[in-house]
Amino acid sequence: MTFQSADMENTTIGELLRETRIKRGLDLLAVAEETKISPRNLQAIEDGNFSTLPAEVFTRGFYIMYARMLSLDPDEVLTMYGLERKKSPKTGIHTTPPPNRLAQDMANMAERPTSLPSSYFCLVVFIFLLFGAFLCWYFSWNPASFLSEKLRSLEEPQIEQVMNEETEQEKPELNFAAAMAEAPQPFEKRSLFSPSTVTAATTQPIEYPKAPMGVPVQPRYSVNAVFQEETSLSLQIDDQSEHTLAGKSGESITWHAGKKITITLPGDTKTRLTLNNIPVELPQATNDTIRLSIPEDLLR
Hints:
By secondary structure, the protein is α+β, with helices and mostly antiparallel strands. 43% of the residues lie in helices and 14% in strands. It has helices at residues 5-10, 13-23, 28-35, 39-47, 56-69, 74-87, 99-109, 116-138, 143-155, 157-169, 176-182, and strands spanning 221-226, 231-237, 243-247, 252-257, 261-266, 272-275, 278-280, 289-294.
């Protein structure tokens, strides 16, 4: 950028540099960071305070760097500086600064940018992240899935433990027709126990009539229901009349029968049934209800 002659006559070099800096939206600290000239010397340049500036060779270098930083013509800036310095009083001008001032000015000019440490730190962090991503890709390890599994295990430890126990105790399904064929033959009519709101943990054993040899007669069918939610059902055991029961969530109920047992459940029930400790697969729902008749449905 060149200057008009009228501007050079009416404006000092310090005012010109200051106005140009302000128009570019810069402050003295930003200029000092870019040029490595101390803010004190920059202020002296803009104020035209030549007496506080260092030796002539350093001062001219400051003006050249300042002009280049503001995209001004260094030669014209030096010309204006020379004219103004010749007009300024000679008193107090130091042709050679004291040693301590000279050393400080040299240090300011050779000062390393303050942004380097933070740049190095960001670069190191980026390299570590890149290396970690490579390891995850190489070993096919997904940290998001790992954290999700850990959080899930902390939130539902009891549910997971129950599922593991049920898996260990799970038995393969057997052929119900064969199981029924091997079951004991029908026995004489007896009084059966039909709990409604009592869990298996509190159900007392049932005493059945004893055979002539003194051995207790066992029921032919023993059905256990485990409720996952509150469920209403209808139950008919042997020749007894059908009645309605209500099972609570987490409750386990066992019924015993000698001839047959019929259970009617809602179509969307999550209740799990076992017959003689063998899991029972519920039939398809009809009219939003599931009706299971033992042993008829199991022998089909």
